[in-house]
Amino acid sequence: MPETAQKVTFRGGGFVAERKRGVGIAVFVILLLLAEWGTRTGFISALTLPRPSDVAYTFVELYNSGLLFKHLVPSLTRLLVGAALGATFGILIGVLIGLFSLARAGLVPLVAAIFPIPKIALLPLFVIWFGIDEASKYALIAFGTFTPTVVATYGAVDNVDRTLIRMGQSFGLSWRSIVAKIVLPGAMPGILSGLRISLTIAIILLVAAEMLGAEYGIGAYILQAGSLYDLERLFAGVVILSILGVIVSTGIGAIERRMLRWRV
């Protein structure tokens, strides 16, 4: 008797991530409820963790007083300008290193030398060079974003399947066409993954820069709250940074879904 063909089900759906709506929000809600319960019952000390409801009330006060946007707008401006400069130049230099042997020979040792340097340690040097105003903050964020973006970009270019490049050459594609249609699309997943890390580093450096010589900004707000041991305001600032991180990650995810449809 002929055997009936059976459909083979791939484990994990062929390792393709399935979107589970609401799961992430549910995790946050559960953690907040546990924290609220713990602080109200005394299981968690009020000196260790403030009540989430008190932090929410602090947000309302910040909004009503107008201080929320006084701190948020300068931080977003510094983050956008610094990260845009660092990421743009990082991608350009990374692509040059990945495509040209001369650029690789000259720039890889330089990038390897400056990459391990803690960027926060360079803040006093940037203040000396650019002054204590906005330029030093832009420069620190841009420099901190630049180096990981370079490393991620030329690593992504190196990991493009050489078989596809040889196939394009065999079909007579020009060098520009191979770069535009094979190399850059193939490197895009690695570049976007590197941007996730680079932009997270940018948020960290934003806080460090604002803690030195900034009247307004999320970092300055957190420093003021910490000096007064005001846990509600301190955690409100930390939550704002967390929300920025979630927004950045969601934005990169949206770009990935739009630009990398060919992976599905």
UniProtKB/TrEMBL annotation:
This is ABC transporter permease subunit. It holds the Pfam family BPD_transp_1. Belongs to the binding-protein-dependent transport system permease family. Residues 76-252 form the ABC transmembrane type-1 domain. It is a multi-pass membrane protein. Keywords: Cell membrane, Membrane, Transmembrane, Transmembrane helix, Transport. The keyword NAD does not apply. The chain crosses the membrane at residues 21-39, 79-100, 107-132, 138-157, 197-222, 234-255. InterPro entries: MetI-like (IPR000515), MetI-like_sf (IPR035906). GO terms for biological process: transmembrane transport. It is found in: Cell membrane. GO terms for cellular component: plasma membrane. Its main location: membrane. The keyword Cell division does not apply. The lineage of its organism: Bacteria, Pseudomonadati, Pseudomonadota, Alphaproteobacteria, Rhodobacterales.
